[in-house]
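Reviewers asked in the last cycle whether our approach scales beyond single polypeptides. To address this, we selected a multi-component target totalling 226 residues and predicted its structure end to end. The input consisted of the following lines:
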Amino acid sequence: QVQLRESGPGLVRPSETLSLTCTVSGGPISTYFWSWIRQPPGKGLEWIGHVSTSGSPNYSASLKSRLTMSVDRSRNQVSLSLTSVTAADTAIYFCARDSLRSHHFDSWGLGTLVTVSA
Amino acid sequence: SYVLTQPPSVSVAPGQTARLTCGGDNIQTKMVHWYQLRPGQAPVRVIYDDADRPSGVPDRFSGSNSGDTATLTISRVEAGDEADYYCQVWLVTDNHRVFGGGTKLTVL
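The resulting structure, written as structure tokens, was:
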């Protein structure tokens, strides 16, 4: 069974870059789309975007100008980079695998809390 | 952009039936998926493609989708069902995914 584990710094300064990694184990990283989803404290889920090994990444309109996602097949990792962060980017960040059918998420990581603060 | 509307909270007594709704314009034309979130745990898919249930999810969980409303029904509710539930759809126009605002299910 595939397992996803997010990792990265828990604290990022305002205006700096948030960088996270999702390590995939127990299953292939190719073929699938890999999404990042976040949940600000006390708020709902927000899909940020997805990436695959075979196509261009696809980002949410609200974050597109600050986002970069990529896949490293050799390391079985998916990465996220969000530039110029503010307190509004404080959230739990989840990595999730898109199902091969019907565009939903069939596997999720535990998530990692990122706080933006000076 | 497409908006999914969920009631912020639903309360139900143990053993009763909980019905969690997800409203969207002509949502019946889209496949709706549901996730259960508990603090400190990975989100879990409980229903996909409107009404399909992944292996391991109790058959007390069921889904339907008609008109402008999709519904997640939890029968014989247990204390362990207390969680936040989110609906999600795929937007074919831009290949984006959208979540509803989530419903907190409280078991009284």
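Chain A has a mean pLDDT of 95. We regard this as preliminary and will revisit it once experimental data from Aim 1 are available.
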